[in-house]
Amino acid sequence: MILFNIPTISGKEKKYISQVELLRKFSGEGEFNNRCQELLKKELHCNSVFLTSSCTQSLEMSAILSNIKTGDEIIMPSFTFPSSANAFVLRGAKIVFVDINPQTMNIDENLVEAAITKKTKAILVVHYGGVGCEMDKLLEITRKHNLLLIEDAAHAYKAKYKNKFLGTIGDIGCISFHETKNIHCGEGGAILINNKNFIEKAEIIREKGTNRNKFFRGEVDKYTWVDIGSSFLLSEINAAFLFAQLERADIINKNRINSWQLYFKSLKKLAAYEKIELPAIPAYCKHNAHIFYLKTKDSGERNNLIKYLKKNEICSSFHYIPLHSSPAGKLTGVFRGKDKWTSKESSRILRLPMFYKLKNKDVEKITESIKEFYS
Fold this sequence. Notes:
Elements: H1 13-23, H2 31-44, E1 48-52, H3 55-65, E2 73-77, H4 82-89, E3 94-98, H5 109-112, E4 120-126, H6 135-144, E5 148-152, E6 160-161, E7 164-165, E8 172-176, E9 189-193, H7 199-206, H8 212-216, H9 236-246, H10 249-272, E10 285-286, E11 293-295, H11 299-311, H12 327-332, E12 333-335, H13 342-346, E13 349-351, H14 360-374
Parallel strand pairs: 2-3, 2-4, 3-12, 4-5, 5-8
Antiparallel strand pairs: 1-9, 6-7, 6-10, 8-9, 11-13
């Protein structure tokens, strides 16, 4: 059986975890948390980075940092994971969904401005599959209307938009290190603070609303509760595991890109015959091969292909159910404009196995099985 995902093991995870045991420091803000944060800051050219226990928590921190209140509106795509919306719903916001660009499955930047009202507080973009949204246009819109721009870069570690790392372009970026991602620690995430005005507050929010870090630095003689917050820290064991992967991130991503390119090359002829559609990567983007997907004619054909691949011992999967069509989405949000592409395109997507050290022969078996299905 060719599995859909196998979480990466880079080689030094056990070694670094054993060092945590020797140091006897297991909670957050230890040596490996600091090493990861400094590495991420340096690699991504970011003002400040804080590790969290998940990308969900990073998004929740971004909602607190943005001072989201009841009645505020947040514009985002419907084609995303519930965490993107939940973080803001928890603060009382109304979610305003807009349609996607069918080529990239990202938010259609040309539809965003029409969705803005006096209640709009922020725009949240999702870089689907590590392919960047059209950030220049979105920055122009947010500056014009004095809005915050938040990047859900859960898929996008080390992917770029015009030479800038995704997650470092808006006011705040959120990255996932869940085991399904290119780089992981089982459960983990990071919040990237690009707007310097948010750095001190982010530090406080992440430490249960206290100024504990100021105390550790000797800036105050005792620490106390100064603002709202929660426990967003990543444990040292997770951070040690993550550091081993961050050191080899470029090698891991390069290996995945090779698999992605092999998929694309092998299925190109089938796409030329208009049996399937393949991902479109804009010229301004450098993706990280987080996902390889194809699009079938419709949901029925997709489901039949999934079944066919399963018979051939190949795991495959669809992806997000649009949030605006979900029970919670109907209660907490509204789709502004026409749903021309979101529902249609999401019903056609089929994701193929993608992980570090996926064998070329397995990619060949998968693509041959797809060709057989269509023959």
